[in-house]
Amino acid sequence: MxxxxxxxxxVATVEAGSFSAAARGLSKAQSVISQxxxxxxxxxxxTLFERTGRxxxxxxxxxxxxxxxxxxxxxxQRLTNSALALNEKTPTEITIALDEGIPFKTIASIxxxxxxxxxxxxxxxxSASSHDIIxxxxxxxxxxxxxxxxxxxxxxxxxECIGTVKFDLYVAKSHPLAGIRCENMxxxxxxxxxxxxxxxxxxxxxxxxxxxxxxxADNYFVLLELAIQGNGWCLLPNHVALDAVQSGELVxxxxxxxxxxxxxxxxxxxxxxxxxxxxxxxxxxxxxxLL
Length: 291
Hints:
alpha/beta, D-Maltodextrin-Binding Protein, domain 2, flat, LysR_subst-bd, transcription, transcription cis-regulatory region binding
C-alpha cells in the first residue's frame, strides 16, 4: 500500500513541475523521488505521469488521484501537529501579529478579557502586512495572526473570520483626480497608483494593479503619506484615512459609481499545531465578532 512519502513525492512533483524540482523542495535525491512515484504507480496500478515530454504531465489517473493525495497529506499534517501538541503547556508568552490596516484600538479594547483569564501570559504585538504575517506563521515565529483574508491560506493554518473593514479609493485634495468625476475605473489608469505589497513583493488578492505606473509601500500609513503629498491615488481602510479626510488633506475619489468601496474580511489565523490549546481557543473566542 502507498506511503506518505510516496504521496509527498507525487504532490511535490505536480506543484514543482519536475522530479528534480520536487527533489530540491523535499531535500531528497531525484532518484528517491522517482522511485517513490514508480512505487506509487505500482500500488495504484496506474500511470500517473506522462513522461514523453521535457516535463512530466499528469495523466487522467493522476488528475483523479491528486485531490485525494492532497487531502490525505493535509490530514496527516494535522495529525502530526495534534500529536506534537498533546503535552504542550500553556505558553508564558504569546505573540500576536496584526495587519497595519486593521484598527488596533478595537483589538486592544478586548484583549483584557484574555488577560483576566490568563494573567501570567505575557503578550507581544507585532505589525506587518498580511502576507508577511502568513510567512511568520509558517516558521512559527508567532502563533496568531490577524490579517485581511487571502484567497490562498496554507493548509497548516486554521482560520476564521472575525468581521470586516471598509476600504475606499482616496487621493490628495490637490491631485488632478480630485477635481474630476471618473466615469469608470479606466480613468484611474492615467494616474500613478500607490499599492501595498509585502516585504517579499507579494500583493494582496484584493489590491489590484490598475495603473501602468505604480509606487509600492509595505504598510498603509506610508501609502497614506504618499497620497497626502499628491503622489497618486490608493485604496485605504477608511479608519486610516479618516483624520486626513477630516483635515481636508485627502478626499474620497469622486467616481460615477459612488459606492466603489470594498469590504475586506478580517481573519484570525493560528498554526494548527497550537490552535487546539485552551489559551488560543480563548483568544479566538474574544476576537469573534469584534469588527
